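Exercise: predict the structure of this protein bound to zinc ion.
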Amino acid sequence: MIKATLDGSHVERLFTRIEARRDDLVALARDLVRLPTVNPPGDAYGACAELVGRRLASRGFRVEYPRAVGTPGDCDRHPRINVVARIEGSGTGRCVHFNGHIDVVEPGQGWTVDPFAAVVRDGRLYGRGACDMKGGLAAAIVAVESMLDEGMPWPGAIEISGTVDEESGGFGGVAWLAERGYFSPPRVDHVIIPEPLNVDRVCLGHRGVWWAELEMRGRVAHGSMPFLGVSAIRGMTAFLAAVEAELYPKLDARRTRMPVEPVGARASTLNYNSLHGGLSESYAGLPSPLVADSCRLILDRRFLLEETLDDVKREIVELAERVVRERPGLAWSLRDIMTFHPTMTDEMAPVVRALDGAILRVLGRRPSHIASPGTYDQKHVSRIGHLHDCVAYGPGILELAHQPDEFVVIDDMIASAKVMAAATLSLLCGG
Ligand SMILES: [Zn+2]
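Solution:
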């Protein structure tokens, strides 16, 4: 009986059903975009979670709204409210989970449409979050609802979650839920995150990230007699010169086997997020003549599967130590801000193969396997949940994420909904 659900005519009927729900899919995505779930601070999370939860509850899902109390930013005005919905199939089996983050980054400047009006024009839905990633979440919901409408029996369970704070590290969302078993077997076996990575690509994982603050400390003195002090800015400048001459060439030359897109990110990278030395910028009037006794640099180092975090840190530490050794009176310290390790799902993992087959069937072309230059919630599923059958797959165009006039192509939402439905059937029923 269950095998019968996988014959071609069933899947084709399911695809027809998804196409017929085009207007419903667009309406759902528009409703999601109209809720300005901007993070920070984390606006409208409760309303957005309820929009998803009420809809799925009416379809027979058991719905929870776990609030990540006490996580960064959580307060009564901006509660970190997630939604997790689960529906059981016709027998025991595995569980496929779709996870979409409901937060969006602030719109910023340069929009030609209202970022929260959810304008539909020329086959596209415009708005902050349309691409990253409310269009993907809506596609996943309609994919699963269409499976239910079709009435075919399937074993196991399906879960859909809308989670918060992905854009700020996911601590109140997937990380918090993963710590409580929401992303671990036996509850969940396969996770698909509909991040915007293009409709014909499967994203296996991402590079690692290490954020740290390096501080150089010197000694304050009158600016007219700098030889009586120790300039932390000059110390930092010497460090930056050493990085420029010695470390950057090494990082540029280091290549990964991870299929990161864009290709420029297949190397180790280092960005300076901020640099500040000397007098605070908030003074009024004229600056005072002082030798800077502190200079702080925020480092954003993206690292590869082939690198260890210890090595990544050591490269910075060695240069800082050398600079300080050569400059009497100068001291340095390093403070970790955030670390996430690289993660990459095996290309032969069930969720990858299921999506590959579905993409080929729906789009008629072989999918490419990529990895992301930046991290997303997969890190928490793999590191905290210890669930490694997890990838990102969704309809948006990666380069549009966080841009003004962000949009998602409606045909891509439909195609990705078909892919998600077919992949789910294949994961639950085999085939
Ligand atoms: Zn995203």
